[in-house]
Specification:
This protein has about 400 residues and is of the alpha+beta class. The chain has 2 domains: about 280 residues, Thrombin, subunit H (Beta Barrel); about 100 residues, PDZ domain (Pdz3 Domain, Roll), CATH 2.30.42.10. About 20% of the residues lie in helices and about 35% in strands. It contains 7 helices and 22 strands. The protein has a 6-stranded antiparallel beta barrel with strand order 9-10-11-14-13-12. Strand 10 and strand 11 form a beta hairpin. One of its GO terms (biological process) is proteolysis.
Length: about 400
């Protein structure tokens, strides 16, 4: 299964403009370059080294990848790309996905949407027909991450994958995706890192989060599988694709734009997942409205900046309340809406500019519950800095 990101009213225009004269001028260059490459031992050696690296990474990593089968009632929130297990005669199979071992204790990382609503989970390894039961240990629905564990697989049958540093990923670097697209178990595809810090809605609440974009082909069934670099280190967890159109089956297809959750995001919450927690993005405990939505005369009357989030209410005993954030005090009618004016305006959080409440949630994705985060606000025209202590509780 794989989440499908299908933007509304998305149109794709392919512009093909070619001049015969330019083509004829380039042709000899291409021909001569190809001939030179064919005759060059160095070029041939480079090609072999590139291939050998891919083969080496595959050989080294495949014993750490698992194929996951979910049985039970299909959850209402399951993505439309949930892929029934092909070739299985079990009528209760509701989806398949991928995952990988992170240590020698049998812990397996995958996507939350792979295991959501499962009544029974089984995994099996490359070249092994036997299925092993697995249990969900911890989940992070808003990050689309889940941690499984199986204690029945002998330790000598698998090798945990090495977790890399996604902050060091470079655009243009090799990217190797492993998983089981369409139930085709343990397939390998290769491409490059097309972009980093690509913000896409992730998890059950669609909070915009940084992702790694790749053109390595990933499809339904790849979800939860590893995205590796040329050193056989996991740099991301394959989670969704951009699919402008769908096949006749209604299932989204790879279009060369896939996304992976950066492995550093998973590493940051892995101890809490192992402890059996349900991990959610920290909340600061405010409601607000984008300043940009207010008429210019209202912004001028209340001395508001052009951008930011005007705080409406602050939840008691929340991080925002503890930091001294002030909500609205004066009620006004604006059309059919009632607003509270006179509160603080949040302009930056964790160094990131804020224009909407979603910006606040996006900035908090990489923050740890119990940690601190700096908040820049405007209060009655003056800029101030507040420090929030992020709670571990669920603050709405």
């Amino acid at each position: 299964m794989l989440r499908i990101l299908t933007p509304g009213l998305l149109s794709i225009t392919v512009l093909l403009s070619a001049c015969e004269q330019q083509t004829s001028q380039r042709a000899p260059l291409t021909t001569s370059s190809s001939a030179a490459a064919a005759e060059s031992p160095t070029a041939e050696l480079a090609a072999l080294e590139y291939e050998e690296n891919t083969i080496s990474v595959t050989d080294e990593s495949q014993t750490g990848v698992v194929f996951i089968t979910r049985r039970g009632q299909m959850p209402d929130t399951a993505p439309e790309a949930s892929e029934p297990s092909q070739g299985s005669s079990d009528q209760d199979v509701t989806g398949t996905g991928s995952g990988f071992f992170v240590d020698d204790e049998g812990f397996i990382l995958t996507n939350f949407h792979v295991v959501e609503g499962a009544q029974q989970l089984t995994v099996h390894l490359p070249g092994r027909k036997r299925e092993f039961p697995a249990q969900v240990v911890g989940v992070a629905p808003e990050y689309d991450l889940a941690l499984l564990q199986t204690t029945d697989i002998p330790a000598d049958l698998y090798d945990p994958l090495e977790l890399g540093d996604s902050d060091q990923v470079r655009v243009g670097a090799k990217a190797i995706a492993m998983g089981s697209p369409f139930g085709l178990e343990f397939s390998v595809t290769q491409g490059i890192v097309s972009a980093k810090n690509r913000v896409v809605p992730t998890g059950i609440n669609g909070i915009p989060q940084n992702s790694i974009q790749t053109d390595a082909a990933i499809n339904p069934g790849n979800s939860g599988g590893p995205l590796l670099n040329s050193a056989a280190e996991v740099i991301g967890i394959n989670t969704m694709i951009l699919s402008p159109g769908t096949a006749a089956s209604g299932t989204g297809q790879n279009a060369g734009v896939g996304f992976a959750i950066p492995i550093n995001t998973a590493k940051a919450i892995l101890p809490r997942l192992k402890a059996g927690e349900t991990v959610n993005v920290p909340r600061i405990g405010v409601t607000g409205i984008p300043v940009a939505l207010l008429p210019g005369e209202v912004r001028e009357e209340f001395n508001l900046p052009d951008d930011g989030v005007l705080v409406q209410e602050v939840s008691p005993a929340s991080p925002a309340a503890g930091a001294g954030l002030v909500g609205g005090l004066r009620r006004i009618e604006l059309g059919e809406a009632a607003l509270l004016m006179g509160g603080d305006v949040i302009t930056r959080i964790a160094g990131q500019p804020v224009t909407t409440l979603q910006d606040i949630q996006t900035a908090l994705v990489t923050q740890q519950a119990g940690g601190t985060v700096k908040l820049m606000i405007q209060r009655q025209g003056e800029t101030r800095e507040l420090v929030l202590n992020l709670s571990t509780g669920e603050v709405e």
